[in-house]
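Before drawing any conclusions, I looked closely at one protein, both as residues and as discrete backbone shape codes, quoted below without any editing:
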Amino acid sequence: MRVTLIIFLSSFSIFMAKADQRAPISGKITDENNEALPGANILIKGSASGTITNEKGEFQLDAGPDAILQISSIGYKTIEVAVGNQTSIAAKMAIDVTQLTEVIVTGYGTQKKATLAGSIAQVDGAEIMKSPAPNITSSLQGRLPGLTAVQRSGQPGKDDATLLIRGAQTLGDSGPLIVIDGVQGRGNIGRLNPEDIETITVLKDASAAIYGARGANGVLIVTTKNGVKGKPNFSFTYKQGASSPTQIPDVLDAPTFATVYNEGGYYRAGRNPNYYNNPQYSAAAIQAMADGSDPVLYPNTDMVGLILKPNPSSRQITTNLGVSGGVDNIRYLLSFGSVDQNSPFVADGTHYRQYNTRLKLDIDLVKNLTVGINTSAIFNQKNYSADGGVAWVDVLGANPVLTAKYPNGLLGPGRLNQNPLLNDQRGYQ
């Protein structure tokens, strides 16, 4: 028995390229037959600096003596070359046989990558699992050429991305056909357990013609894992992540807002000097807002700060427990996964829970005849505020001179009697 524990923690890395006054180094990349290799990628390891070879396999790049060049090209093994005192580099790349013998799902069958002629892209489940995102659709962005994933909401349970292959194709539904383990028309691809996925393949253009008109916008094929012969293999995965707003709005405080409002009133009055004899906000009121001496009549409210939790992030925890194995003629796989997400906002009842189960059983009755069972289920519980979540129009539209919370703890009316801090007291969905 093998137990695997994986814990994902947040980390931040900053890569800084060292300045170098040297002249650019030059080089040439060739294959095993000493033929020039155009389009090879040359990257300085640990930085974002790089270039590609021209049609003659040649390149130029600024790199210091401590730099290490990573050279890669599709179908060839990646190599690393230390610069040192070299001013000219010649490197030879070997063919990566494993890439050429890789099997690609092509619809109702498979094909070796070396003989593949259609427009097909594939990503392994192991690559998808590198992302701690609980929704698979958001993990596919940037991993499959030609596939665009647009995520319009980050709200737990409503964060499915819109998938498009080579852009919008029609005025109606432009989404691709989803095929999961050979069954067409299935939805909920974003809610699948990432641990269960073997590969995800994108069929584009003529490669999708095998599915007829339903494949006009491309086809997304999902293949789940199978049991393999051997002793029971147990796995346990635990991932914890956090989702935070990309940018928190920086709003005016009450004294600044009142001053700017008065200035606007002055111009609306045609620059009438008598306006400031009776402005909207008096100097005494502005002073009270600044020193907080009268928080009831002259509050200084930061609605954005009040609606966000002290650490503005939502927690997301995913766990998975699985076992697979088999003997000569029977193979099995059983997995169970869960997702738990909450909201980064105060007084927001959003809480999403999801549970996945899958059972796959393959029995070889006789030679060339296998009977199998592939069953899965997704259970989820979605709790939201009665209004569906935080309405930012009520947050950003709430003037800082409006009371959100009184000193005794009672909540104020907010903008148009829509105080976002009351969301969890209006019922729930």
